From TrEMBL:
One of its GO terms (biological process) is fatty acid metabolic process. The lineage of its organism: Archaea, Methanobacteriati, Thermoplasmatota, Thermoplasmata, Thermoplasmatales. Keywords: NAD, Oxidoreductase. GO terms for molecular function: NAD+ binding; oxidoreductase activity, acting on the CH-OH group of donors, NAD or NADP as acceptor. NAD(+) binds at G10, S11, G12, S13, M14, G15, D33, E124, K129, S151, N175, K311. Residues 5-54, 80-208 form the 3-hydroxyacyl-CoA dehydrogenase NAD binding domain. This is 3-hydroxyacyl-CoA dehydrogenase family protein. Residues 223-319 form the 3-hydroxyacyl-CoA dehydrogenase C-terminal domain.
Length: 320
């Protein structure tokens, strides 16, 4: 089936950024949340992503020219022009408007029968996701594909009582999807092979602002692939901070300078969200019943005191 029209349910940090990718690739997208104010916040977030990318790309050629000149190379005007042409922005104000024009805010499912593919990106909560999946299965065509962006929940369970679990699957994006290309494609127990093939094919043709997306097929295990490796690292960094092994800044510096991490684990936990990090490690602990996934008590205290990271201004670091 050719995917032409797409919907995204949940216009929070991930849903809005995922909708942006689809619109950037030329698709018409319905963006749904619980009420119009929430959808409009998502639309604002998308505009901000695009404006940020516009600025980033416009500044790229001057940064590259400055970088070369600091090496002592004197560039001619022709050489500078060649760099400007090579790094020319693929975004313009007009293109931004066109992309925004493809995103339609909605607050109900009345237009979902025309949709070929839906991505669910609501709260990481089994009951909420099950309810949304049920609504989607009631309102979408039988052959529409429904994927979830869950970080840690079982697709087999989320889609356990919908009418077409063969067309349901996980498509797990990474934050921020407009620069990180990976999508984990995770079939549930009843997902059809054709659905996996269609999703692998669809995502390998999509682009974000840095290049092609990279779908990878992953077996359904708690944490899938990346989070099963990454979240225990973030959790361990929090445990070590709590034990007083080193200051937060030193833990991050150590992993950047000693292990080549592009970001420190505590900085990354702040970016992912302390609540999301805590939820994933808790789920790994429960599902595998293994002490190596024991959640950090510091993470728990931070969630309890609403220190959730960048999204609300305070986590391991302050963002005020
Ligand atoms: N934040 C990350 O780094 C990240 C990365 C990968 C995957 N995820 C996953 O993506 C999903 C969304 O995460 P997020 O960080 O964008 O969360 P978020 O809290 O920013 O956004 C969730 C949105 O879902 C909306 N919502 C809740 N119930 C709804 C319903 N019944 N109908 C319509 N909208 C509803 C909320 O109003 C909110 O706007 C979660 O499953 C999360 O695990 C998050």
């Amino acid at each position: 089936m050719e995917i032409k029209k797409i919907a995204v349910v949940g216009s929070g940090s991930m849903g809005s950024a995922i909708a942006e990718i689809f619109a950037f690739n030329g698709f018409e997208v319905l963006l749904k949340d619980q009420n119009i104010d929430l959808v409009n916040s998502g639309i604002k977030r998308i505009k901000k992503i695009l404006q940020g990318q516009l600025l980033f790309q416009e500044g790229r050629s001057s940064k590259e020219i400055a970088r070369i000149e600091t090496l002592g190379v004197v560039l001619s005007e022709e050489q500078k022009e060649a760099i400007r042409t090579k790094l020319k922005s693929h975004l313009t104000e007009r293109k931004v408007e066109e992309i925004m024009g493809r995103i339609k805010p909605v607050v109900d499912y009345s237009q979902f029968e025309n949709v070929d593919y839906v991505v669910e990106a609501v709260f990481e909560n089994m009951d909420v996701k099950k309810a949304v999946m049920k609504d989607l299965s009631d309102h979408c065509r039988e052959n529409a594909i429904i994927s979830t962006n869950t970080s840690s929940l079982s697709i087999t369970k989320i889609s356990s009582f919908i009418s077409n679990p063969e067309r349901s699957i996980v498509t797990h994006f990474f934050n921020p999807p407009y620069t990180l290309p990976l999508v984990e494609i995770v079939p549930g127990m009843r997902t059809a092979d054709a659905t996996v093939r269609e999703m692998m094919e669809f995502y390998s043709k999509l682009k974000n602002h840095r290049g092609f997306m990279k779908p990878i097929k992953v077996k359904e295990v708690p944490g899938f692939l990346v989070n099963r490796i990454l979240v225990p690292v973030l959790n361990e960094a929090a445990i070590m901070l709590d034990e007083g092994v080193a200051e937060a800044g030193d833990i991050d510096t150590a992993m950047k300078l000693g292990a080549g991490f592009p970001m420190g684990p505590l900085e990354l936990a702040d970016m992912v969200g302390i609540d999301v990090t805590f939820d994933v490690i808790r789920i790994l602990y429960e599902e595998y019943a293994d002490q190596k996934y024991r959640p950090s008590l510091l993470l728990k205290r931070m969630v309890d005191s609403n220190k959730l990271g960048i999204k609300n201004g305070e986590g391991f670091y302050s963002y005020h």
